[in-house]
Design a protein that fits this description.
The protein is an alpha/beta fold. Helix content is about 40%, strand content about 20%. The chain has one domain (about 5-165): Leucine Aminopeptidase, subunit E, domain 1 (3-Layer(aba) Sandwich), CATH 3.40.220.10. A six-stranded mixed beta sheet has the order 1-6-5-2-4-3. Bound molecules: adenosine-5-diphosphoribose.
């Protein structure tokens, strides 16, 4: 596993990184899960700014300030809802990661933390999502040399174990 990728167990709202990624919904109105936790920790300014963004398409990403979070930025992305794998879910999830990295590069973000996008309320199978996430993160680190460190922050043990197991399959860079 490339050393610029870290897989950790924890709460993304506590990460001291340039930007954290939010698994949002297309309205960008705060939901539950990691979206709810980020909005709760950031405070009301985040919802205010999200309102002005007028939503976000699946697979796309938009950036806001981090407000009361330790992170300076929040990159909001909207993952696919799992419908059995026959509605381009894999490609949409991959596009989420690419959209986030493109914004991170544009904003000279050096350190970035991702949750496990779409594997909670949106029901995407965790192992399948891990493979897509780690493949896209590895590809992005090759494409964007200025990005120093990417953390995948897993909230629960099952997700953490899945990422760790699958990361063993990925060769050192
Ligand atoms: N830090 C890191 N990860 C977290 C945190 C947290 N504080 N809270 C939850 N998670 C994890 C979940 O355990 C899951 O592994 O984030 C992952 C993604 O789960 P969800 O938050 O449910 O996100 P997702 O599956 O993409 O569904 C998005 O849920 O909250 C709503 O508004 C959101 O409609 C959107 C949908």
């Amino acid at each position: 596993m490339p050393e610029r990728i870290a897989i950790i167990r924890g709460d993304i709202t506590k990460q001291k990184v340039d930007a954290i990624v939010n698994a949002a919904n297309s309205s960008l109105v705060a939901g539950g899960g990691v979206d709810g936790a980020i909005h709760h920790a950031a405070g009301p300014g985040l919802a205010e700014e999200c309102r002005r963004l007028k939503g976000c398409e699946k697979g796309e990403a938009k950036i806001t300030k981090g407000y009361n979070l330790p992170a300076r930025w929040v990159i909001h992305t909207v993952g696919p809802v799992w419908h059995g794998g026959r509605k381009d879910e894999d490609e949409i999830l991959a596009r989420c990661y690419r959209s986030c990295f493109k914004l991170a590069d544009q904003h000279k973000i050096r350190t970035l933390a991702f949750p496990s996008i779409s594997t909670g309320a949106y029901g995407f199978p965790v192992e399948r999502a891990c493979r897509i996430a780690l493949r896209e993160i590895k590809g992005a680190l090759e494409k964007y040399p200025n990005i120093e460190k990417v953390s995948v922050v897993c909230f629960d043990k099952k997700t953490h174990d899945s990422y760790l197991t699958i990361s063993e399959e990925i060769p050192e860079e």
